[in-house]
Amino acid sequence: MAALKNDRFIKALLRQPVDETPVWLMRQAGRYLPEYRETRAKAGDFLSLCKNTELATEVTLQPLARFPLDAAILFSDILTIPDAMGLGLYFAEGEGPKFERPLSSQAAIENLPIDVLGDLQYVMDAVSMIRQVLDGSVPLIGFTGSPWTLATYMVEGGSTREFKKIKRLLYGNPIAMHLLLDKLAIVVTDYLNAQIEAGAQVVQIFDTWGGVLSHASYLEFSLAYIQKIIQGLNTDRPDGSVVPVIAFTKGGGPWLDAISECGCHAVGLDWTVDLGAAKAQIGNKVALQGNMDPSILLAPIPVIEQEVKRLLTSYGQHGPGDGHIFNLGHGITPDVDPEHAAAFIAAVKKFSPSYHL
Amino acid sequence: MAALKNDRFIKALLRQPVDETPVWLMRQAGRYLPEYRETRAKAGDFLSLCKNTELATEVTLQPLARFPLDAAILFSDILTIPDAMGLGLYFAEGEGPKFERPLSSQAAIENLPIDVLGDLQYVMDAVSMIRQVLDGSVPLIGFTGSPWTLATYMVEGGSTREFKKIKRLLYGNPIAMHLLLDKLAIVVTDYLNAQIEAGAQVVQIFDTWGGVLSHASYLEFSLAYIQKIIQGLNTDRPDGSVVPVIAFTKGGGPWLDAISECGCHAVGLDWTVDLGAAKAQIGNKVALQGNMDPSILLAPIPVIEQEVKRLLTSYGQHGPGDGHIFNLGHGITPDVDPEHAAAFIAAVKKFSPSYHL
Hints:
Two copies of one chain form a homodimer.
Chain A: H1 8-13, H2 34-43, H3 46-51, H4 53-66, E1 72-73, H5 80-87, E2 89-92, E3 96-99, H6 106-110, H7 121-134, E4 140-145, H8 147-156, H9 164-172, H10 174-198, E5 202-207, H11 215-231, E6 245-249, H12 256-260, E7 266-268, H13 275-282, E8 287-292, H14 301-315, E9 324-328, H15 338-351
Parallel strand pairs in A: 1-4, 4-5, 5-6, 6-7, 7-8, 8-9
Antiparallel strand pairs in A: 2-3
């Protein structure tokens, strides 16, 4: 495959010097883009779009055609795994993801298959095709949900605000909870290794719901499995390159020390964390990715530019061993004007070089 | 008024030695209690219950009749203030609080009245009556929402998951945002002083939504106003006693240093925070209140007892200047079996004395 023309993102993840702060956006291929909505309409429902190699490739590349981003991220969904494990994923209009067969008993957990890569071949096909089309312009990020995050959807049956079923399981039957997480860690490890094999040059683990746990439960039921997955990844490639791993726990601000020791190369930060303080705390061990409040993209453009400057200043001048990837603290929302996303990225490009002298 | 027979809670807040760890529950007078549901049915809607002095007193005392709690908390709602400011609070069945006239323009903010204590007399009447009926058995906690938290409801018009309107205001028109928060800080200060005058012996400021802000915005738009309020409180009473102030920001885990310096006597912790780490970080400046995951009350009783022991051990043996008040990390939920709440409180009573030797 083609050599990388822009390796700024990989270098920053490995805490090597770069000329400017690389930038990408979580959910950059998404509903805020009119061209995405058009392709999505062609595909029918969301899951059909994920499973259609050509269309998934098309939407992955859409934001790169608009903006000078430093990375592409595979267009897919974290719930492909539970779907492949037989839970029957569907998207009810306006209600988010749902499962036809949520896990409602220990027996259901015991019976869950873990040899499911065959049913996820469409993801690897998309990775391969995206790599081909990217032709080395920027690196491609593969991704997964964390076992804890996947488990919450699988037990709750969909989105939740309250996490009652999963917490009843966690506190009431921790053995079954661990069995489920163990199975998911195996599947996730296989899944990420297959994505790497297919061409993913970076992988990110999204722990969207780790933040609803207590400190102790987070370590036991979420971070331990993220660590286990990372240990099992084939990140050292035959060509001598390394596939950096980003661990992102939304709401993980109180646990940065522990997260920074999970084996990841970079820690994703949500916007509640002070970037400068996080650098002082863990910046000598890992690169940091983030962390602008996505809501700021709804504000006037001068406010966006101001905030970009504030965050660049907060991380400060880059020295040896530093690494920062600019991003939002969570996914870009559907109501953002693409011009505001453009202004955000332009501001990072304009103001960051002076921090890399 | 009667002298306090049980001052364990006040002493712990002031970091003075106590014989056991005091305990109360956020939302202890609430829907999980059948006797509450009965009184509530008598009152009609929720707001009528808040405004009925006798019934508000009755429900305040219900959990104390069941459990050996170390404090009572005024039965009321944080949204009494915006209601008194003219926004027209109502509770739509199953939808939570709503306002008839949410703030939708800068002019609406400019026109907001701040001299509204007269319309909140029913709260002071309830405080007085509860104090009389308590007859010094345990201290009475008064409370308020923080200006930021009140503002989110006032601008969004009710509950929200996304905080889009308030963040548009914050980032798009910070001057109007500050004007609103300034007005609310004045009203909240008056309101808490009136509660203290009427007999509240402790006050808690609930910053339920501070955690949705970035670090910098939290300091500027939430904590600064909490600090301003505390500076304006008449906490030194003519009889020589002090009214301790508890500051509770849900999701405030990443900002504990700043919160501990806002002038409060105690910091409320949600369950994402490691209690032992928080003690090491700020426990020499403030008492700590919290912080069991409310979901644990849905687990079997032995799990609840286990968790109480774990948290007591996490805080550790009490020495000079230590102070811990046991509580949940957020309000008790309506689906908790009162027997589980009883087991929780009993466990604190049973296991905590050995940490106060």
